[in-house]
Design brief:
Length: 327
């Protein structure tokens, strides 16, 4: 059965207590994976001891650490710059230590120059709740190039292949699954830098770039439903290959160039059909609600990750899951 997880720091008691009361037992973690310049090797956040402290803190709060979604610096890897091998060494160490500690999935992103982009976090939706959205015409169409100039799709594919060739053997040895998050939004280029994880076809290319049981997908539904009009079909396509390792369960309205995020029960996607697809492919990993609305009285968290919005999403997903798995 698909399991529900949430993302939070182990010290966020104001958040994890109500989440735990909702019956959620799994967590997505790994915050603060940035280098500590004046710390020794064992104090770096990807070291065995640091990850052990993180895992133990979650377990002491009653949660299983199912996925690490943050990541050490990767910009030189993504852009093929000098120093990328040093960045790769930190990632390899993290993967080894995840395997030693039994943390099964690392969700990485390969967006260079920018990460997740949004135009606004205060777009009004149902009942005055506020959601995030993106408008390429407004934000990025005429924006200047970054300091890196133009980076082609061919360069990005070459850099992604080099990355996978380096980390896949380590992940295979230590039994850690690599879940590739989509480029968000799935549009290319952005300020001259190509984005390649933006289509169903390109995801299939990713899987074939370095074939391995550990080379797979972090299926962010908000991005994938902008790539295809048949998200349940995409789930079945990649699920038949056993390549879905982690799920962001969310929804949107619009196109890759202009969209808004939605309540889980108010988007463009048939989420009941999606859950049936996960059931039918035998997916047993975790999904987490993502990019929820800011609801009335919600003063905890930041746009997309507020408390009341998350609790609404958890309840909705639990209801869908119960209906599907009782069929």
């Amino acid at each position: 059965m698909i399991e529900i997880a949430e993302v939070f720091r182990p010290d966020e008691r104001e958040l994890w207590l109500p989440i735990k009361q909702c019956g959620v037992k799994h967590v997505v973690g790994g915050f603060g994976l940035q280098p500590k310049p004046n710390a020794g090797p064992e104090r770096q956040p990807w070291s065995y001891m640091s990850l052990l402290r993180t895992k133990t803190a979650y377990e002491n709060a009653g949660f299983d650490l199912a996925v690490i979604e943050n990541r050490p610096p990767m910009e030189k890897i993504k852009l093929g710059l000098p120093g990328r091998d040093e960045e790769l060494e930190a990632i390899k160490e993290m993967i080894r230590n995840m395997g030693r500690l039994g943390i099964p999935v690392w969700c990485y992103a390969f967006m260079a120059g920018h990460t997740v982009l949004r135009t606004s976090s205060t777009i009004p939706t149902r009942g005055g709740a506020q959601v995030t959205g993106y408008d390429h015409e407004l934000l990025m169409k005429n924006a200047p190039l970054t300091e890196y100039g133009e980076v082609s799709e061919e360069q990005m594919w070459d850099n992604l292949k080099y990355f996978l060739e380096q980390v896949v053997p380590v992940a295979e040895e230590f039994n850690v699954k690599l879940a590739a998050h989509p480029d968000d939004p799935p549009i290319s280029p952005v300020r001259g830098i190509a984005r390649v994880l933006i289509s169903i076809e390109n995801y299939q290319k990713l899987l074939e770039l370095v074939p391995s049981p550990v080379n797979g997908i972090g299926l962010c539904q908000g991005n994938f439903t902008l790539m295809t009009d048949d998200l349940p079909g995409a789930i079945r396509h990649f699920g038949a290959q056993r390549k879905i390792f982690f799920v962001h369960f969310r929804d949107v309205h619009g196109t890759p160039a202009k969209f808004v995020e939605t309540f889980h029960d108010d988007g463009k996607t048939d989420l009941l059909a999606c859950l049936r697809a996960y059931r039918d492919i035998g997916f047993e990993g975790v999904c987490r609600p993502d990019h929820v609305p800011t609801m009335a009285g919600d003063e905890y968290g930041h746009p997309g990750y507020t408390r009341i919005g998350r609790l609404f999403a958890i309840g909705y997903i639990k209801g869908l899951r119960e209906a599907v798995y009782r069929e």
